[in-house]
């Protein structure tokens, strides 16, 4: 399947200014993608509110807007530039959330802009904690293993306090839906901590939703970087092991690629679960990152979460393997399949 001929211009959303230490990874992937799209002969329109990035250099995109990444501003850019497609999977959570709210407000439909890189259903399945729990259950029904931690969805502080009782007491993990960099999440060891963390989580989550989960503090944490195309070819790019145990956010943790302390059997199990999840969620034009926890005492595997986008780990996986995740994700988004894209390392075999 060659490149799509119905897309002439693409609007790429960057990640904006994030916490120091997080922005560079998204700039790395965004710059890679903009160059690829330009090389494919597409007009690239970029919005990124962080001028301290390479991707906002004049030669990277055809039109660059250093404007706030909000649905209101991005709509003005769409009205002016009239792009054929919107690529939101390279700007972290900020870009995804903006694209989702513009879809919900009908902006994309109004201007005839297609979302490429991930469809709304896949983004929701990957990001909405409750829907993702259903995905993991469906995977377990199909392949016999893979599970989520026991959990309760809460939309208010009353729900949260009742949820602790359901899970059998403290400590519990608090995870808000649709946030980035671990914002509003944490471990609560007593009611005071729970009220503080869950209160912040409910405020920060755009859907006012947090997930309370059984504590897996101290378990070993692993990640897989996967890519899938529209013909259902799936590749596991890299396994990543977190040097720090569960409790330190992945993006802030020391990580090692490839994973070092997994037995082959454990690794194959993670691989099977990861591939089944990316298929069940329906990410079909790009990369995703799936995180796992393994109990060091009995080897029980729990699927923590997935990001249906390029994440901070993608930069490490790209550098460690030489497999340019963002570049290939951009090519998949415009219609190529993995078997048509040359592998940059071997230069002879496909990606």
Structural account:
With 351 residues, this protein is α/β, with parallel strands linked by helices. A hairpin with a 6-residue loop joins strand 13 (286-294) and strand 14. Helix content is 37%, strand content 20%. The chain has a 5-stranded parallel beta sheet, with helices on both faces. It has a 5-stranded antiparallel beta sheet with strand order 12-11-10-13-14, sandwiched between helices. It is globular. It has 3 domains: 9-116, Rossmann fold (3-Layer(aba) Sandwich); 125-147 and 218-323, D-amino Acid Aminotransferase, Chain A, domain 1, CATH 3.30.470.20; 151-214, ATP-grasp fold, A domain (Dna Ligase, domain 1). Helix 6 (129-143) packs across helix 9 (264-281). The chain starts with 8 loop residues before the first strand and ends in an 18-residue tail after the last helix. The relative contact order is 0.14.
Brief summary of the model shown:
By secondary structure, the protein is an alpha/beta fold. It has helices at residues 23-39, 71-81, 92-104, 107-110, 120-127, 129-143, 157-167, 191-204, 264-281, 312-321, 325-333, and strands at 9-13, 43-47, 63-65, 85-87, 114-115, 151-154, 172-176, 186-188, 210-214, 220-228, 234-242, 255-256, 286-294, 301-307.
């Amino acid at each position: 399947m060659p490149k799509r001929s119905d897309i002439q211009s693409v609007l790429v959303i960057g990640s904006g200014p994030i916490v120091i230490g997080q922005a560079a990874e998204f700039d790395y992937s965004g710059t890679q993608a903009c160059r690829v799209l330009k090389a494919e002969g597409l007009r690239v329109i970029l919005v990124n509110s962080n001028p301290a990035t390479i991707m906002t250099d004049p030669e990277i995109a055809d039109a660059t807007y250093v404007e706030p990444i909000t649905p209101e501003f991005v709509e003005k850019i769409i009205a002016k530039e009239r792009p054929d497609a919107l690529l939101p999977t390279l700007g972290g959570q900020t870009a995804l959330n903006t694209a989702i709210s513009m879809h919900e407000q009908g902006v994309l439909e109004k201007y005839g802009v297609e979302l490429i890189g991930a469809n709304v259903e896949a983004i929701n399945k990957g990001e909405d904690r409750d829907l993702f729990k259903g995905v993991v259950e469906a995977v377990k029904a199909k392949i016999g293993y893979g599970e989520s931690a026991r959990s309760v969805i809460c939309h208010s502080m009353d729900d949260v306090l009742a949820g602790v009782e359901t899970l059998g007491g403290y400590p519990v993990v608090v995870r808000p839906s649709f946030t980035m960099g671990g914002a509003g999440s944490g471990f609560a060891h007593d009611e005071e901590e729970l009220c503080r963390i869950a209160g912040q989580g409910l405020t920060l989550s755009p859907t006012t939703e947090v997930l309370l989960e059984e504590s897996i503090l101290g378990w070993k944490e692993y990640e897989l970087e996967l890519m899938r195309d529209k013909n259902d070819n799936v590749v596991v790019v890299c396994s990543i092991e977190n040097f720090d145990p569960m409790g330190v956010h992945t993006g802030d943790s020391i990580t090692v690629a490839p994973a070092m302390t997994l037995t082959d059997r454990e690794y194959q199990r993670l691989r099977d679960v990861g591939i089944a999840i990316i298929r069940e969620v329906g990410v079909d034009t790009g990369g995703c990152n799936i995180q796992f926890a393994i109990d060091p005492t009995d080897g029980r595997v729990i699927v923590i979460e997935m990001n249906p986008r390029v994440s901070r780990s993608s930069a490490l996986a790209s550098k460690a393997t030489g497999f340019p995740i963002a570049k290939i994700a951009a090519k998949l988004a415009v219609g190529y399949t993995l078997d048509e894209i040359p592998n940059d390392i071997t230069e002879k075999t496909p990606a």
